[in-house]
Amino acid sequence: MRRLPTVTALTLGLMTIAGALAAQTPTPTLYKRLGGYDALAAVTDDFIGRLVTDSALSRFFGGHGNDSKARIRQLVVDQLCAATGGPCVYIGRSMKATHSGLGITGADWDRAVRHLVATLTKFTVPAAEQTEVLAAISALKPDIVEKP
Ligand code: HEM
Q: In ligand 1, which atom is closest to the CA atom of 76?
């Protein structure tokens, strides 16, 4: 049997290893694909800014002072960071406990989701990542909406 020249054999070997490594490389977390912490914080600020200035939703946030709003904002950042595979830990209350008694309706929810899509689009988040974010958020809907 004729032996392959050393260089060719080496090249084939390296290509095999590279192929195997590529096949093993996991897809980066949604957190990383969204751009990491600063990007998530900016998305959260824009999203909350839209919620509190929407005259149809602002009543929910009326009784909160600046410090309370900053606390809610930080908890939303932490929650998004944790839910998308980032290094944060969410230490806020459950979504059910937090939103219980606010009387958030299905229409309020739809409005909030439209704001979120507007925010994600503004930050040029690709369609695939937008779908993943919305799927994660939609899982919370039953705990947040009280009046379908
Ligand atoms: C899009 C999905 C939503 C997420 C991920 C979310 C997340 C959160 C988080 C993490 C907090 C703070 C939790 C804590 O204090 O321990 C919070 C508070 C709050 N959220 Fe949401 N929320 C969502 C939708 C909404 C909607 C649609 C409304 C109303 C239109 C709303 C109104 C509020 C209010 C008023 C508070 C403050 C409650 C309080 O201080 O007692 N949220 N939310």
A: 10
In the chain, the amino acid numbered 69 is: K
Over residues 96-110, the mean pLDDT reads: 98
Mean pLDDT of 65-73: 95
105: β partners: 147
**Gap between the Cα atoms of 82 and 40, Å rounded:** 11
Q: Ligand 1, residues 53, 72, 79: which to mutate, most atoms within 8 A of Cβ?
A: 72
User: For residue 141, which of 108, 93, 115, 92 has the smallest C-alpha distance?
Assistant: 108
In this structure, what are the phi and psi dihedrals at residue 147, rounded to the nearest 5 degrees? -125, 95
Q: How far is the C-alpha of 11 from the C-alpha of 127, rounded, in Å? A: 38
Report CA 34 to chain centroid distance, whole Å.
7
- Atom from ligand 1 closest to the CA of residue 60: 35
Token output for 9: 């054999």
